[in-house]
Amino acid sequence: MNIAGEGVASFISGMIKLSEIGASALPSIAEKFNQIAESFNEWAQSDAAVQAFNATIETAKDLFRIIQQVIGILLRFRLCSPEAGGSTLSGLADGLAAVNRAISTVEGHQALVDLFKSAGQAVDNMKTRPDRTSNLPAFPRLFPRLRHTVTQDRPLAP
């Protein structure tokens, strides 16, 4: 017990020394905290904070809508694929993994950038030309043409 007592005494002595050092730093830590809190309060009261907060809310709403639509599309895949005699969810997961690998390349990255630029232009065109939205009901007719394109026995262009 005597051996442990010496170790405990040394440990307590070290802890006391560290607490003295820490206590001496507390005023400067508290001052810095107060400065940060004051800066935050000033920012939170500013128009910039309101704009940033509103932009974040709008972005979150858009992301939620995107997630809803992706889930809806995947649900359609899950429901339609077995009817066509195709793969189940594990097959879809394998296919998505292959797509992920393909778009993770430099070429795949650029293809996605080009796709999003084109999609953005298409959306802008629909906004500026409302008459073009009348073509949206024809969208389902795209799928037979797409099916024909993807089932052709030819290599994809690089």
Explain what this protein looks like in three dimensions.
By secondary structure, the protein is mainly α. It is 80% helix and 0% strand. The protein is built from five helices and no strands. The longest helix has 43 residues, at 2-44. The radius of gyration is 30 Å and the shape is elongated. The relative contact order is 0.03.
In short:
Helix content is 80%, strand content 0%. With 158 residues, the chain is mostly helical.
Main sheet summary: none
Number of helices: 5
Spans of 5+ residues with little confidence (pLDDT < 50)? none
| Global mean pLDDT | 80
Q: What percent of the residues sit in helical stretches (DSSP H or I)?
A: over 70%
Instruction: Supply Rg.
Output: 30 Å
Q: Layout of helices and strands, plus pairs?
A:
Blueprint: H1 2-44, H2 47-83, H3 89-103, H4 106-128, H5 142-150
What tags apply to this protein structure?
158 residues; mainly alpha; 80% helix; 0% strand; elongated
